[in-house]
Design goal:
Elements: H1 2-29, H2 35-46, H3 52-59, H4 63-74, H5 81-101, H6 106-113, H7 116-122, H8 129-141, H9 150-161, H10 165-184, H11 192-209, H12 220-223, H13 240-256, H14 259-278, H15 287-299, H16 312-323, H17 326-334, H18 341-348, E1 354-357, E2 373-376, H19 387-397, E3 404-408, E4 417-422, E5 429-436
Parallel strand pairs: 1-2, 1-3
Antiparallel strand pairs: 3-5, 4-5
Amino acid sequence: MDDKKELLNRLIISISIILFVVLSVINLINHTVWLDEAIAWSLAKNITLNNVVITLKNEGHFIIWYLLIMPFAKNNVCYPVPMSVINWLAYFFAILVMWRKAPFNNFFKILITFSWLSLNYYSVVARCYSIGILGLFILLATYKDQIKHPYFYTIMLVLTAHTSLLATLPVVPLACIFMYNLLKNQKEMSRKNIILPLIILFIGVFLWFLPFLHGYGYDGKAVFPPEYHKILEFFNYKHYIMLYLYILSIIWILIFADNKIRFFTAFTLFEFLIFFCFVMGLAPHHGILLITYLILFFWMTPKLHSINRKTVPFMLCFIILLYWNHFYHMSYIVDNADKSNIINFIKKQDKNNTYFFLDTSVQDIIPYIYEYNYTPLHPRYNDESNIDNNIKYFINVYQIDSKVFLISEYKINDKSIEFKIYRKNSGKGIKIYATPYEGVFKPKK
């Protein structure tokens, strides 16, 4: 009987993983690079030891992702395949860790594996998040053995924190719990096994803050429009019911978790709110991070893993949040702006040209000119008098000495060349202007 159960269990695992591979790869094949992916590739191609700290300070993401894709970006190897494959492999291994080490049953593992987060986002969009999720899953899988393997756990904490802000926020309370456990068990441990992990942790903290010692160079509240700065906007504007379900889920976590996991849950969400309310600014897509954290909190709360009368309310909320708007997110992943004549214009120019995009709404074309140098600016939510300074700053940091073009939705001067781009969603044409930059930015009203 036990053999039959084991065989059935292995069959479920194998079929689930194979289906995940097939479906996620299909989505990946039909996905065209997003703006954020293309920018990461461009930065990995351009950053050097001389400007890496300044660049990361302004870019807002962390070094490990760029180190992974840098060899391919600097040698122009088959964009965007290398970073897409690296990202997919990271999330694939994260799924394998979950299936092998997560303490909940196959039902929940299947739910997570085939959620829109897994199939339509993390495995498809090549950003720095999937390697962070892999690190977090490894940390959760080894949580109970952290004192037995303090060096491994410490190194995983540091590496995971340097993948993305998504990963850093839960790493902070996990590191606090780890330090508490080290000090609590110091009588049973050698001094070396306490001091060295603490030194590694503090070195990791210093390296994390190193880019910001020059001052935080990114004003998120200027980039996101005012309507984004509302907590209720997290779940795609008017779907407030999702926020209420999330709050109910967190209440259930706090009721059923032990004290350390309550601290882990509350502190992670507190950091999230502080950062996105007072440092960066809120946007609806940040709800993705909240749902990801819910998976972590659930993983660490064993009393919620068995299905019974007390856990059903949480499970219903959990399922709805994981599968809310599943097909909307799938279409969002594979939809792209149409290639237009401005793309052809840019590709006819010298590849050494640099392009500054002066409006977030025209950045759809950036993924199509990955082999060129480009830098997106955000004058819509910034003081336009600073645009010249921003351009001069990037010219200095990247040592740009070639011809520079400004791409905008409005005519800057008489040398501006008019184009149109079309979006699949609306089918409407939008006027776009390419203007040679000659040192003074004076938009023509």
